[in-house]
Design a protein that fits this description.
about 200 residues, alpha/beta, Rossmann fold, 6 helices, 7 strands
């Protein structure tokens, strides 16, 4: 499916389902398009070309995960969403858009920590609208391959990142996204063993 066609189909599904189950709190159409479609498309440009697998935590209405997948169809994608109705919406998006290499986990990410098949299985972990603290970063890094990256969707000037990250994690880049939203992509890299 061409990118523009996929984005339109996704946005139409999001609008339809949002009337029933409140997938997103953004009511202003221009802001919704910027936040839910444009930001992820800009962020997809900053994903490593070598990335093959993405874990999106707290997927909610599917952004940034679905637009990133549409922009980078080569990626395998796992979306984690604990709310059953939102997970059902994500499965419907996958079905309607005929997305391949996409899996929806209807669980809290903490439940997935017990699955050895998911440990160090992902090149990139994306997070938006998830409160971040040192414990969460420590837990989530279990899913990230050494040399892999967290891609955190944040506001410029956001001080939400923990004061001290685990020693294995380092902020490696900050990329501006949508100026009117004052948004940025903060990239936090998981160091390879033995590297300072």
């Amino acid at each position: 499916m061409p990118l523009a066609e996929g984005l339109v189909a996704y946005y139409e599904l999001l609008e339809l389902w949002n009337r029933k189950i409140s997938l997103t709190a953004i009511d202003e159409p221009d802001e919704a398009i910027d936040r839910l479609l444009v930001e992820p498309l800009l962020a997809a440009r900053h994903l490593p070309a070598t990335a093959r697998s993405v874990l999106d935590v707290g997927s909610g209405g599917g952004s940034p995960a679905v637009p990133v997948k549409l922009a980078r169809p080569d990626l395998s994608l796992t979306m984690v969403e604990s709310k059953a109705r939102k997970a059902a919406f994500l499965r419907e998006v996958v079905r309607q858009l005929r997305l391949t290499g996409v899996h929806v986990e209807a669980a809290r990410y903490e439940e997935l920590l017990t699955r050895p098949d998911l440990h160090e299985a992902f090149d990139v972990i994306t997070l938006r609208a998830v409160k971040i603290d040192a414990r969460i970063m420590m837990n989530l890094q279990a899913f990230l391959k050494p040399g892999g990256s967290f891609c955190l969707f944040r506001s410029t000037g956001d001080t939400e990142l923990p004061d001290s990250l685990p020693p294995s994690l380092i902020i490696s880049a900050r990329h501006p996204l949508v100026e009117t939203l004052r948004s940025q992509l903060v990239v936090v890299e998981k160091r390879r063993v033995g590297l300072a």
